[in-house]
Amino acid sequence: MGRGDEPIPSSAVRDDLFRSLFRWPSLQGLWQGLQKRQRELLVHGLNLSGAAALVAALRTSMDRPMLLLTAEEEEGEIWADLLNRWAQEEVALLWRPRLLLSAGQGSVDPRQGEQVRALARYHLVEKKPVVVAPVAALTQPLLPPDTWRDGWVRGEMGDEIPLDRLADRLVAAGYEPSDLADRPGLFARRGGILDIFPVGAEAPYRVEFFGDTVESVRLFDPETQRSREEVWSFEVPPASLEPREERAFLPDHLGPDLLLLVWDPLRVEERAQKQGEMAGAEGIKVEDLRRRGSLAQILYLTSLPRPPRGAQVEGFWALETQTVPPFLGQEELLKEELSRWQKGKWRVLLCAPDGERAVHWQERLQAMGLDVLRVEGWTGGPPLPPPGEIWVVQHPVPQGVVWPSLRTVILGQEDLGARRSPKRVSLAREGSSITSADQLSVGDYVVHAHHGIGQYMGILTLDIQGAERDYLVLRYEGQDRLYVPMDQIHLIDRYVGEESPRVHRLGGAEWRRVKARAKEEVREMALELLHLYAAREATPGHAFRGDSELLQACLARFPYEDTPDQRKAWEEVRADMARPRPMDRLICGDVGFGKTEIAIRAACLAVGDGYQVALLVPTTILAEQHFMTFTQRFAGLPVEIRLLNRFRTPQEIADTLKGLRTGQVDIVIGTHRLLQDDVAFHNLGLLIIDEEQRFGVAHKERLKKLRHSVDVLTLTATPIPRTLHMALSGLRDMSLIETPPENRYPVETYVVEHSDRLVQEAIRRELARGGQVFYLHNRVQTMPRVYQYLRRLVPEARIGMAHGQMADRELEEAMVDFLHRRYDVLLCTSIIESGLDLPNVNTLIVEDADTMGLAQLHQIRGRVGRSDRIAFAYFTYRPQKILTEAAEKRLKALEDFAYLGAGFRVAMRDLEIRGAGNILGAQQHGTLLQIGYQSYVRLLEEAVREVRGERWVPEMRTAIELPVPAYLPESYIPSARAKVDIYRRLQGATRFEELEDLRQELQDRFGELPPVVEDLFALERLRLYGTRLHLLSIGQEGRQVRLQFSAYLEGVLPEVLTGLSSWGRQVTLRGRPRPFLYFTPKDGEPLLPQVEALLKDLLQVPALLQRKKELMEA
Fold first, then answer.
1. Of the candidates 477, 284, 395, 366, which has an alpha carbon nearest to the alpha carbon of residue 13?
2. Are the beta carbons of 725 and 595 closer than 8 angstroms?
3. How far is CA 135 from the centre of its chain?
4. Which of 165, 546, 584, 758 shows a CA-CA span of 20 to 30 A to 951?
């Protein structure tokens, strides 16, 4: 059956692991014990993969509720992933406990949504999944099951539901009214439209009413606010599972006859004890569950035959499981083991991650002389071969297991050297957002392209010459006001720079001087970059070979799939180094996005070709970290790596310097000590610079000289705007890494009132899992008091201190001690904002977060979540603090920030623009702050085109000056921020399809468009026609409409008039020396459709088309 390359069809497979597991003699007793409902059972000899296979088999074979407890949350994540992979379907449901246990902390816990979604899913499916939870979940009280069921709000098309009553029911269910339902827990009402974002839902509902009747129900995208699909009904669960009066616990919700599975019971018991101390009297313990009526059985899963204290185990079973030996790159060992198992009549199954890999492995093993069969089209638990056979199947088991007593081996993808497939982490959605990063709030500073820096004061609707329009109101020096019509909104950019810049004077000469100076400075920078680029292209350098064994070994050791950005950056670096001229490439990417991996590969490429590498970093602690990373990565390879900094002894420094001169040292990592005169290299080929902007002027001058002779790779963790990257392309070699690693969890962010209990819980929770904590208090004078406060709250914690007023050496020693885990908690100022990579630090507590900027908080938050552990950031503010309007606004933005909402995007934009300053240098950054980012990029694009000799025609924009009321009334769109955003998008549209798309979006979100909004879209269509026709303006003179063409087209206007003969005397040509086309509209008919019809016809006139074609060719 299926010999050679012929695959075995799945229909021919007689047995699978899950069906047969409990037929084996060693597990028949366990199965009988489970059927007889013996209260406590124990299986020992299990490793993690074997235990997961056993639980997946139980879930397949039994139809009863199961709860699996782990000691730590991360173990729960691994368990849920393993169960789903073993079963090849979603058989596990992860339950994560809420974190904000203390009452009155002032923030919604994002995990409430997860819990609501998990419980809803549990009750929806017929065959119940295994609920996987850390033991901490047992301490948390929940709504009783009856209250949970009764709290749902439901409706369907055709139902009669008064809108007011529905809104009241949503409030009773814990939902908040808002302008925009863009995150779970909010609902928004606009006329007869109700948007609801259910907690735990993937997408919100848009319910449209006709009177009190539900006319339609649609799902919509919370980012774009556009409807996606029509559905028949809506279901909204309670916004929270927190109990109000009566309380229940997780097992109460899972149903009767519950099987409780406990992985590593001794650790679970220890963790439960610690959790009980934190939670006080609340919650239930594992021993309580033994006495509860809803619980039938407990099955302990463990490696050693040791039950927890007080357990009365009625049956012990040994199921010895062994870890598969590591075969990575060891073909002979793999062949030996497989031959031994085959001769011993073992069942051997190889699980490949995909069909292509399954074929590859079959061919690879057949080439070794082994008889291997491949199973095709298999779903469910792993298929079992007959004794003495080796099968390959497509199955996602990551790590296999050896069962000696069952004479069965299952090998997973990692055992055979396949790349680890990362856990998928949900990130912010892609796609255009309705909330622009440039959205304006009253009081924000803006830059007007013609008038300079002013302050935005709001939107005003004015009637000017019979036409009602919306205007942005800007305040300038001396309380002068500028009213900017919305068709000029493209001239305004939100100012990013100093906290409170000085506003300019309207009509003054200062702004013109600032812009002229900026233009000259930007042009000089572009010229300098062009000369540097040309000089580098003309300088001979070494062309590195990219095929050394060392490089292949280095690439094989990277355990993850590259992100797309990482792959592209590596390809660009590799290509640069292969060229016979010196590389000078900058890699930009947030901390932890994989820049160091690119640096390691580049170093490997250079060393493999016989050259030395120097890695230059600004601080001692960064040098220590890079040294640890490089040493681990190159372990066992013939590469000599040394560290050169002030913590080395004189003898170590002397040995390193000698090794650099003789060529014995391949890679040296150090601070600016590397730039001193006594450092000489035998054969330096590559210089890697980390965070160059943090070096002093003298160091930068020395680096400039080095750049001429060796390949240079510069790394920076400050993100920069993609628009700046585009503007600089061709003058500076840059790679952007914007994709986070796929196995990285987003940092869970909470905006909460500060309390002793919160601090105590957060620190103890982190310490209990062996982690470390940043506690940020941003005032040096009061740090000793906070130090004593933390010692009193958490006496068992070892606490260190770090702030900017310490001597450099003292600060570095404190940071190195924290790196080496001599402290559990680091009490610090915002000095931790940049440059640290501490994967063991996964809790951050920030005091007085309302006094800090969003961009700064984003960078600080980036210090945690640097590993595959879940990280937590608590941004706290003082309880009962009377907040100023500005502080309240900042806190609101912080809550947005916690949900990766609009505030997050603004913070990222601010951060990128500060990053642009780092890339451009101090002088250019000053220029950027003076004129605003958009103005700067426009000047830079012009300057780059000019110095490269490219012809550039400025973008033309037709001015529409028709006295027609056209605006967004407050009765239609009440939110000023939404209005500004819509006007921006209207003015930014370059295609008719974009306008129609936006029009449909407004109809979807706000209902039928009023006539003044329809006319607003009609005017924008005229603008697009006018741009295509090279019209400078469309205005009105008396009863006639006047069209003014650009000078390029004036010569052909008589021929154009001939081409419009069908319009008769309605269209005439008048005026000298500059002629205008005049149009007389028909009385009693709307003006705008007539003008639009004329412009459409103008676009078809042959003389005009011919002249435009000549212009394009010129």
1. 395
2. no
3. 29
4. 584
- Grouping H, G, I as helix, E, B as strand and the rest as coil, residue 760 is helix
Determine contact, residues 308/300, Cβ cutoff 8 Å: yes
Residue 1113: per-residue pLDDT:
67
CA distance 9 to 5: 12
Q: What is the DSSP string of 130-199?
A: EEEEEGGGGG--B--HHHHHHT-EEEETT-B--HHHHHHHHHHTT-EE-S---STTEEEEETTEEEE--T
Which pLDDT tens digit goes with each residue over 132-173? 999 988 888 899 999 998 899 999 999 999 999 999 999 999
Residue 982 near residue 988, CB atoms below 8 Å: no
Helix (H, G, I), strand (E, B) or coil at 496: coil
Nearest to 919 by CA among 907, 931, 928: 928
Distance CA 181, CA 175 (A): 10
Q: Hey, what amino acid is at 1009?
A: L
What domains can you pick out in the chain, each with its CATH number?
8-12+322-411 (3.40.50), 39-145+244-313 (3.40.50.300), 153-233 (3.30.2060.10), 539-717 (3.40.50.300), 748-899 (3.40.50.300), 984-1113 (3.90.1150.50)
How far is residue 1071's CA from residue 1050's CA, in Å, rounded to a whole number? Answer: 11
Question: Could you give the CA distance from residue 836 to residue 421 in angstroms, rounded to a whole number?
Answer: 27
Alpha-carbon distance 102 to 258, whole Å?
A: 30
Average pLDDT over every residue of 557-577: 88
pLDDT given at position 283: 52
Long-range contacts of 408-411 (CB under 8 A, 24+ apart): 408/17, 408/346, 408/347, 408/348, 408/349, 408/384, 409/324, 409/341, 409/346, 409/347, 409/348, 409/349, 410/17, 410/53, 410/349, 410/351, 410/382, 411/324, 411/327, 411/348, 411/349, 411/350, 411/351
Tens of pLDDT along 79-114? 999 999 888 888 898 998 887 654 444 455 678 888
Percent of the chain whose predicted confidence (pLDDT) is above 90:
36
Which three-class secondary structure state does DSSP give residue 888? helix
Q: What is the pLDDT of residues 1020-1046, one digit of tens each?
A: 999 999 999 989 999 999 899 999 998
Q: What is the mean pLDDT of residues 1061-1072?
A: 88
First to last CA, the chain: 73
Whole-prediction pTM value?
0.69
Contacts 24+ apart (CB under 8 A), 223-230: 223/182, 223/429, 223/431, 223/432, 223/433, 223/434, 224/431, 224/432, 224/433, 224/434, 224/1001, 225/180, 225/182, 225/434, 225/1001, 225/1004, 225/1005, 226/1001, 226/1004, 226/1005, 227/1004, 228/203
pLDDT of residue 1052: 87
- Strand, helix or coil for residue 50: helix
According to the model, what pLDDT value does residue 435 have? 37
Name the phi and psi angles at 318, rounded to 5.
-100, 125
> 471-480, 558-567, 689-698, 720-729: lowest mean pLDDT where?
720-729
Residues 856, 646: Cα–Cα separation, whole Å = 30
The 8-class DSSP code of residue 314 comes to S
Query: Which residue spans within 240-371 are E strands per DSSP?
Result: 258-263, 295-301, 315-318, 347-352
Collapsed DSSP state (helix, strand, coil) of residue 782 = helix
Handedness of CA 299, 300, 303, 306 (dihedral sign): negative
- The strand pairing partners of 1106, in sequence order, are none
Residue 427 has pLDDT above 50, yes or no: no
Contact between 667 and 602 under an 8 Å Cβ cutoff? The reply is: no
What residues does 1049 pair with on adjacent strands? none
pLDDT digits (tens, 9 = 90+) for 785-831: 999 999 999 999 999 999 988 887 888 888 889 988 999 999 999 88
Both structure tokens of 1054: 């008589």
Structure tokens at 862: 């980036």
